[in-house]
Amino acid sequence: MISPEKKSKSEKNKNEKNMQNVINTKSQPKSQPKKDKKTGSKKVNNEIYIVGAGPGDEKLITVKGRELLKKADLVIYAGSLVNPKVLEYTKGECVDSYGLTLDETTKLTVDAVNAGKRVVRLHSGDPALYGSIVEQTEELKKYGIFAKRVPGVSSVFAVAAALETQFTLNNVSDSLIITRPAGTTLESDQIAEFSEMGVTMAIFLGTQKIEEIMNKVRCPKTTPVAVVFHASWEDEEVIRGTVADIAKKVKDAGIKRSAMIIIGDVVDPKNYAKSYLYGVKQGPLD
Ligand SMILES: C[S@@+](CC[C@H](N)C(=O)[O-])C[C@H]1O[C@@H](n2cnc3c(N)ncnc32)[C@H](O)[C@@H]1O
């Protein structure tokens, strides 16, 4: 009979050999990450972490994200929107994924995992918004590598903090639309239609097209608009205006990227109803 320890070692070797074959042949194993038979809990190294770096301020990463960075041997981070101060949490190698193709980042990750390295893929804000994690994880699965996700504070929430407002406010707006304008990777957008709904709209990736966006929206020209550059960074900048004048103000300030557009009355909250949360009339909470 084979001892559990020997069995674990031989299975690990078998796994490693299989993984090598996978890389060589580009076949697609469908197995799930395996438990280490010896400890019963630790996983063998066929997984990576996709971590949200937060909006900029290095203290706005989660504790879990920071711990993973500390242990990482390789950090592949998403360009200029990840504050270099966040990268100081790791002693591992840091590679900027800007300009790398999906195949190139996949190869980098697969090679590192096969070399026994702990890999963190670091995305700005929260990885679930305007990231490319689904395609990345699908590719990695082909090599038997599984990605675990650690959420982050999206820049949209750092923007609300910078504006000292809330996106949902009684009597003003009960909904938040998160969207982006059409561009090279998006044929058409729904900004005009959304702007008729009278709710808060957060527009990512749109600062360069602010004039076009303001000409397109169908809400009153007096609707408050704010543009927040580098929310939570040391050089954060807030520009406030209306649909009628924000584009000029943003142009004058020289802001072209790394900013978010917020359209709606919550930017300048008036006539809102107090929340029932702290009131005497409190009913059942959902
Ligand atoms: C590719 S998206 C990434 C969004 C990210 N996943 C998030 O949750 O914040 C990049 C866009 O997010 C917005 N953005 C990211 N960080 C920002 C910040 N600190 N302040 C304002 N906008 C930011 C900008 O609109 C930028 O063009």
TrEMBL record:
Signal peptide residue numbers: none
Pathway the protein acts in: Cofactor biosynthesis; adenosylcobalamin biosynthesis
Pfam family membership, one: TP_methylase
Biased composition annotated in UniProt, kind: Basic and acidic residues: 1-17
Domain Tetrapyrrole methylase, residue spans: 48-246
Molecular function (Gene Ontology), one example: precorrin-4 C11-methyltransferase activity
Keyword Signal (UniProt): no
EC numbers: 2.1.1.271
Keyword S-adenosyl-L-methionine belongs to the record: yes
UniProt record, GO biological process: cobalamin biosynthetic process; methylation
InterPro entries per UniProt: 4pyrrol_Mease, 4pyrrol_Methylase_sf, 4pyrrole_Mease_sub1, 4pyrrole_Mease_sub2, Cbl_synth_CobM/CibF, Siro_Cobalamin_biosynth, Uropor_MeTrfase_CS
Disordered: annotated span: 1-42
Keywords of the record: Cobalamin biosynthesis, Methyltransferase, S-adenosyl-L-methionine, Transferase
Transmembrane segments: none
Family, per entry: Belongs to the precorrin methyltransferase family.
Protein name per Swiss-Prot or TrEMBL: Cobalt-precorrin-4 C(11)-methyltransferase
Organism: Methanolapillus ohkumae
